[in-house]
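Regression check, biotin case 265:
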Amino acid sequence: MDIDRINKKLQTSIFGKNLFYLHEIDSTNNYALKLAKEGAPEGTVVVADYQTKGKGRLDRKWYSAPGENLLLSILIYPEQEIELVQKITLAAANILIESIESYLKKHHYNKVDINVKWPNDLLINGKKTAGILTESILREKHIKALVIGFGINLNTLESKMPLELRETATSLIEFTKEPVIIEDFLAHFLYCFEQSYFVLERTNYSQVVPLWKKYCKQFGKTISIETSNGNEEVCFYDINDEGHLIYRRTDGELKELISGTIVEA
Ligand code: BTN
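Current build output:
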């Protein structure tokens, strides 16, 4: 990665000013959590070309070919209680969608159909293009620090993905038809993130859920959720104000899922 290029393109006041670039690391989230414990400032950013132990949600692995995609962790210190973590993660998904849309527009590419899959997968034409993993350091009920990790598939062609991902994952390059310059996308994304983050903090994340719902196409669909009793087929009913999933069981009962996974949608 060309750090000079990032610094030249960066138009933020704090996000990315304290930037750690690692050629190879276990996980950018782990690195950012360590920096948080050492008191790194808000807006600290960690990027890497390759992760040896890239983490996905629910103890899954995050695979990304070396040097092709964006592996990024952002450190923030939101003045919020623990209940807001889910909503901040939904907000991060909103920001990522808006930033991809504005990046494509700025570079005169065609529009693409981007949407979210609860809680925070980004899909383009139904295939996963990015995932978000938020990890927090808490002091009692307060968020002491939050690391938001983004894995954004930019340049790995579907045909070059591991076989088990080809059917379900995609990259931005499939739509731009030419490589996405990682440094330029990063500078653009950090600018979008900074602009939104300050507004979100001022407005208590009140607009997050309505905007997220606009990007979600799962309402009314049958989904399969992982529960302690195995998988269960339910109906995707709604998202409540805290960003939790409300689903309807086959017997009509409405239930809430705070965090978990939807296996299929
Ligand atoms: C998911 O979809 O399950 C979340 C994937 C998050 C992956 C990113 S890559 C950068 C950051 N570091 C990690 O170890 N994970 C996140």
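Comparison notes: The chain has a mean pLDDT of 94. The chain is about 30% helix and 30% strand. No diff flagged against the previous build.
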